[in-house]
Amino acid sequence: MGMEVNRTTRVGKIKYTNAWPVFHYFHPEKLQNSIELVTEVPSILNRRMLDGSLEVSAMSSFAYAEGADHFMLLPDLSVSTDGPVQSILLFSHKPLEEAVNGTIALTNTSATSVNLLKILVEKHLKGNPEYFTSEPDLEEMMNRADAGLLIGDHAIKASWENRGYYVTDLGQLWKEWTGCSMTFAVWAVRRSAVASRPKAISEIVQAFRSSKERSRSNLTPIINNAVREIGGTEHYWHRYFSNLCYDFGRREQQGLELYFKYAHELGLLKHEIKLQIWSDNTLTRVKE
Questions:
Q1: What's the pLDDT score for residue 109?
Q2: Is the predicted pLDDT of residue 8 greater than 50, yes or no?
Q3: Which residues form the signal peptide (predicted)?
Q4: What is the Cα gyration radius of the chain?
Q5: Mean pLDDT over residues 223-236, rounded?
Q6: Residue 53 φ/ψ, nearest 5 degrees
């Protein structure tokens, strides 16, 4: 027990606003166990979870799937939508039906949205585009491509400054096609940490849940932060945060399982994925 309390657990925090409600009241210094918070874009957090230099993190859903043998999902936590997401946007010079057979620039900041786009384009719209990966700079993308995919705060800002492009919300398109919700980010823990520091993981899970609930009961401080740091209006951010789902119930799990199924069918994932969710019961199973 003493050894566990003294061991620092490294926890990854997504830079993007969409995860703010889960982190806003998450204060590592108030926890009994030692926590180091690492704030980065999803692609870096994903890599650090895969290489073991983080024990717990918010992760791109797709990156979780790539390393699923090493991870368990934390319960009741995700960034999901049941329809428009407002921050996973494809900008195109032409209507979507034409753009999907042209050249598409993909953001280099997250794998979930890139592979969601490929699923939608190839399975739903029967498109056959050429893809290339780019820094998330819309004008640079659109100078070189027929369409460009942006996520997170880059997508939000670009939607405010839209210069006449067609805009497709991937959350909306997924909902129209499948009828399902879409989970863009999950919270995961490395299995080795579940075994070596169970009490720390339990405390972190409770702290995240508590932060989520406090944020949900009063979004005002988070909205004010977003206006101050990103721009936009209180009305925009209230609508944005209210629209996102931070739970991970059966509906969110079913939508994510379908996404993984399609990703596997397209060869984007090597293996079929079975969701494995951490619970306090995991502790007894690990010890046995």
A1: 80
A2: yes
A3: none
A4: 19
A5: 96
A6: -90, 0
Q: Which of 155, 188, 224, 183 is nearest to 64 (CA)?
A: 188
Burial class for 229, CB neighbours closer than 10 Å (0-12, 13-18, 19+): exposed
Question: Can you give the pLDDT at residue 194?
Answer: 92
Taking CB atoms within 8 Å and a gap of at least 24, the contacts of 231-237 are 231/157, 231/160, 232/156, 232/160, 237/17
DSSP string of the chain, one letter each residue:
-HHHHHSPEEEEEE-SGGGHHHHTT--GGGSSS-EEEEEE-HHHHHHHHHHTS-SEEEEEHHHHHHTGGGEEEEEEEEEEESS--SSEEEEESS-HHHHTTSEEEEESS-HHHHHHHHHIIIIIS----EEEEE-S-HHHHHHH-SEEEEEHHHHHHHHHT--S-EEEEHHHHHHHHHS--EEEEEEEEEHHHHHH-HHHHHHHHHHHHHHHHHHHH--HHHHHHHHHHT-S-HHHHHHHHHH-B----HHHHHHHHHHHHHHHHTTSSSS-----B--HHHHHHHH-
What pLDDT band is residue 94 in, cutting at 50, 70 and 90? very high
Is it the case that residue 51 has pLDDT exceeding 90? Answer: yes
Only one residue has tokens 């009994």, namely: 32
Q: Around 159, how many Cα atoms within 13 Å sit in the side-chain half-sphere?
A: 22
Domains of the chain, earliest start first: 2-81+182-287 (3.40.190.10), 88-178 (3.40.190.10)
**pLDDT score of 1 more than 50:** no
